[in-house]
């Protein structure tokens, strides 16, 4: 259990945050006690990512998925260069969403042949850089076909492209839907045959399809369903392709448990389904390499955010731990990054794991807004100024997904341990 010790039986609890070992009062990050790590980092707040947990997650995933299936890391989840370098050594490819991410991906040593670039608003310069780099571009509009034709003409470098399809279905029960209905992402499935004809006329090097229907799903049935529908749609669209499909990215959407009552995703049925799709694809699309792309699932559980308690205030009976970190560093833990109803991330006092538990404690940041709430009325080990508050499940969409300039505090540091 995280530090939500002895909850009432009927209340949902957080999934156990047992990925990190402990030593007495101290949480261990990459084997190092948290207090010592904080001393090594030199100041709080900081994000810490555990290298061995990243490796372990990829190994577990490989064991659950059919061999031969390619695993890509969607680096927007955590673009820290050291993390991307580590991941590049573990996965088969990197998915980037901007020229800035492309630079980090290329620096990481990832094979350009295995880097792909998606995003609804790619600038001319970004496309030109991508073509020169020799990476795969996931086309998301007719405009991109014309731009790439022009870039190819001007540079003499041939553009490698796949079509990002806005499917006619969505990932059910997901945290964020990114396909189905009207969307800014991809090209509507019904327009894809026309787009494929344009790609053929422009003499771009067509490689295949990219389908991404949603994010943060904890329902294996929903993921299986989306993968089956994605595959079926790709088969139908392949009939219109100017050349055989060599690349088929079926998306991802694997979630991690953030909130009370959520459980870790069971991969068994997802792995079995992908194996089935792979068998069918060997017949139907014999040249196609199957890919899934994951961000959050690969890195989210391996990271924590650490802030120091500055003050302990009691307001009309309610305990507030005021920390040096807050929503400006960790927007999603404050509940302001796409959540409809604010819920608590799992939180611990990472250097007081054996202290008595007190209930109804709120963890807040230093900002002058009531939105700066990192934990609302939680059961936590008793903490005093100087102690270290840990927010688990912070390896994805943390540091770079937060408004760090808000109120002019210093940015959080990041370490890979
Ligand atoms: C954001 C994104 C991902 C990663 O999503 P996660 O939920 O972090 O796994 C993958 N593919 C595309 C196209 C994305 O936009």
Automatic annotation (TrEMBL):
Alphabetical UniProt keywords: Pyridoxal phosphate
Gene Ontology terms, MF aspect: diaminopimelate decarboxylase activity
Transmembrane segments: none
Active site per the UniProt annotation: 368 (proton donor)
Domain Orn/DAP/Arg decarboxylase 2 C-terminal: 46-395
N6-(pyridoxal phosphate)lysine modifications at: 76
The protein's required cofactors: pyridoxal 5'-phosphate
UniProt-listed NCBIfam families: dCO2ase_PEP1
Protein name: Diaminopimelate decarboxylase
Organism: Chitinimonas taiwanensis DSM 18899
